[in-house]
Design a protein that fits this description.
Distance between the termini: 42 Å
EC number: 2.7.11.1
Largest sheet: 6 strands, antiparallel
CATH superfamily of one domain: Transferase(Phosphotransferase) domain 1
Bound molecules: adenosine-5'-triphosphate, magnesium ion
Family: Belongs to the protein kinase superfamily. CAMK Ser/Thr protein kinase family.
CATH class of one domain: Mainly Alpha
Cofactor: Mg(2+)
Keywords: ATP-binding, Kinase, Magnesium, Metal-binding, Nucleotide-binding, Phosphoprotein, Serine/threonine-protein kinase, Transferase
Protein name: Serine/threonine-protein kinase NIM1
Length: 431
């Protein structure tokens, strides 16, 4: 166990999470029972094992365990990280652990990484990957993330070909909802691309990889760092000038949409200078079989002049998307700080269930109170968020397929096709 990783206190609390708050109610007749030895809670047992059990300590030393997570195989690889599949040793939920080798990071990459963490901590949307916990060792940083088992959009299209018009609508609406939420929170992603759109189920997507994201103070703030992937880069990025954040994300979404509905990229070249020329010339060809409303949307987005580009609100209300209903987000969705659990009558649907699940694992009120101010850098936050997310998912918080009106392209997507998809997939479209 790396020394800088915090364990929760191994002291065995005498009261449960909830009876602690009413200590005056304790029954003197139970004193004897309380003094007799009792079984350790799962949390206490795991914490003790991590300090005393030889096998557990060995697994921690060789990296088969990180904190409370049992690490399995590798599931992805990025420029700065390896992503591994892992299980929470107590809750048994699957998670993805992004392992960053701090020794390989220069100062600016370190700054980007801490920005990635603080931005992910501030964003809570059903189509944005959840950050559960952050663990730090002397040479490594571990970001424990929601596991997206359906692979990324690039891999999906590369292996199965373009998405149908209807699937494109469902996926694109979710991406728009996530990006609108980010921009409303003054966050610019700056690396929207198919590789960073992950599937958690067949049609439910999550925006991932906030490594290039940045927080702006106002929508008109000018930025000057070239970020992202050249095939998705807006013309103003290739001009080496200061640029506004939101239109750059919108352009990348236009490229993404083109890729989803055609299976190919609008601007292609074998070198970056040639690609730059293509993007600056702004010439691309949309195949005629792409539906007319979708063509209009692509043209509205891929406008060379950033101020003329479609705004997200226009995109959300565009004709192509009319059959997909976007729903309002649940105001109680984002209870990401475990201290919320202690707030009496806070009125969120999952509170009791989360309470009970944590109590069963041995998480006490004392743990939660000691956890304050640690944000993601605490195993208690990790357990709490994983449990909360699972309970929200089970209650259908990420399963909101909805269609209004008539699907406008009967040749390609019948309403029946949509219903079939609805049975086999989960969709979440919130705004
Ligand atoms: P790059 O700079 O190349 O984009 P990165 O170091 O920022 O990479 P990510 O993009 O976050 O890393 O992750 C790399 C890959 O790992 C992703 O493309 C994806 O295939 C996989 N991956 C990342 N996070 C998850 C997750 N939560 N669930 C499943 N797979 C994931
Ligand atoms: Mg990536």
């Amino acid at each position: 166990m790396p020394s800088s990783m915090n364990l929760v206190s191994t002291r065995v609390p005498r009261h449960s999470l909830y009876s602690l708050s009413d200590s005056s109610d304790s029954d003197p007749d139970n004193e004897e029972e309380q003094d007799s030895p009792r079984r350790l809670t799962p949390l206490e047992k795991l914490t003790l094992d991590m300090c005393h059990d030889e096998k557990t300590i060995k697994e921690l030393n060789v990296g088969r365990r990180v904190g409370f997570y049992k690490v399995c195989g590798e599931i992805g690889c990025g420029n700065f990280s390896k992503v591994k599949l892992a299980f929470h040793a107590l809750t048994k939920d699957k998670v993805a652990v992004k392992v960053v080798d701090k020794m390989r990071l220069d100062l600016s990459t370190q700054r980007m990484l801490s920005r990635e963490i603080s931005i992910m901590e501030s964003l809570h949307h059903p189509n944005i990957l959840w950050l559960y916990e952050v663990l730090e060792a002397p040479s490594r940083l571990y970001l424990v993330l929601e596991y997206a088992g359906g692979g990324d959009l690039h891999a999906r299209i590369s292996s199965e070909g373009k998405l149908s018009d209807l699937e494109s609508k469902l996926v694109f609406a979710q991406i728009m909802s996530a990006v609108k939420y980010m921009h409303d929170s003054n966050i610019i992603h700056r690396d929207l691309k198919a590789e960073n759109i992950l599937f958690t189920s067949y049609s439910c997507v999550k925006v991932a990889d906030f490594g290039f994201s940045t927080k702006i103070s106002s929508r008109s703030q000018m930025l000057d760092t070239f970020c992202g992937s050249p095939p998705y880069a807006a013309p103003e990025l290739f001009k080496d000038e200061a640029y506004m954040g939101p239109p750059v994300d919108v352009w990348a979404m236009g490229v993404l949409l083109f890729f989803m509905v055609t299976g190919s990229m609008p601007f292609r070249a074998d070198t970056v200078p040639k690609l730059r020329r293509c993007v600056l010339q702004g010439v691309y060809v949309i195949p005629t079989w792409v539906s007319a409303p979708c063509q209009r949307l692509i043209r509205g987005i891929l406008k060379p002049e950033p101020t003329e580009r479609c705004a997200l609100d226009q995109m959300l209300g565009c004709e192509w998307l009319l059959p997909v209903e976007t729903l309002r987000s649940n105001p109680h969705f984002y209870q990401l700080n475990p201290v919320q659990l202690l707030k009496v009558r806070s009125g969120w649907a999952e509170q009791e269930e989360v309470h009970a699940a944590l109590q069963k694992l041995g998480v006490t009120k004392e743990h939660i109170l000691n956890n304050q101010g640690k944000n993601s850098r605490s195993p208690i936050t990790g357990i709490y968020r994983i449990v909360l997310h699972r309970i929200q998912r089970n209650k259908g918080a990420e399963c909101l397929p909805s269609i209004t009106g008539v699907v406008r392209d009967p040749k390609r997507d019948s309403l029946r096709a949509y219903r079939n998809l609805r049975h086999t997939s989960k969709l979440c479209v919130l705004s």
